[in-house]
Write a structure and sequence with these properties.
With 167 residues, the chain is mostly helical. 51% of the residues lie in helices and 7% in strands. The strands form two sheets. A two-stranded antiparallel sheet has the order 1-2.
Length: 167
């Protein structure tokens, strides 16, 4: 399973926004500044931030000194919320992705639910479904503040220490 540039760039930009907003004591941050620091196309960021704004994750300010601010504290902004806000699915199955009668499978009445012919689920469906839930759970447990504070390194070290102790 791969996270596309939409999800990765949105998380990078939101993390940059949180850091700069903190440093500027709540001042709005211009997307052009984020684009330059993160080496992301400004027009691409504008598209992503329009989605983030619609989902209530950022607020915009117009005029001189305008830009964006986080709508809530960095510690209250989960990475999963950012990824989902830019329409990035967090699932690892291919079920429901095929087209049936012009509509996406699983959307219309009587549409197949699985990825196999006739709507059956593949043998490994439950494996991929659970992996998707685990990924979503992990991203939901990590906040923008956790990323900024370097807390993920602490988690990795704690997990490695626990694995070594169990061995």
């Amino acid at each position: 399973m791969r996270l596309s540039t939409k999800g990765r760039y949105a998380v990078m930009a939101m993390t940059d926004l949180a850091r700069r907003q903190d440093e500027a004591e709540g001042r709005a941050v211009a997307l052009a500044e984020i684009a330059a620091r993160q080496q992301i196309s400004l027009s691409y960021l504008e598209q992503l931030f329009a989605r983030l704004r619609r989902k209530g994750l950022v607020v915009s300010a117009r005029g001189p000194g305008g830009g964006y601010r986080l709508a809530r504290e960095a510690r209250d902004t989960a990475i999963a919320d950012i990824v989902l806000a830019v329409d990035e699915p967090l699932r690892a199955t291919r079920c429901g992705l095929s087209k049936v009668g012009g509509a996406k499978a699983g959307v219309g009445k009587g549409a197949p639910k699985g990825c196999m012919a006739g709507g059956a689920q593949c043998l490994t469906h439950d494996l991929w479904e659970e992996m998707g839930r685990q990924i979503h759970g992990y991203l939901a447990s990590v906040s923008v503040a956790d990323v900024l504070d370097g807390k993920l390194k602490d988690r990795t070290r704690a997990n490695k220490a626990g694995e070594m102790a169990a061995a």
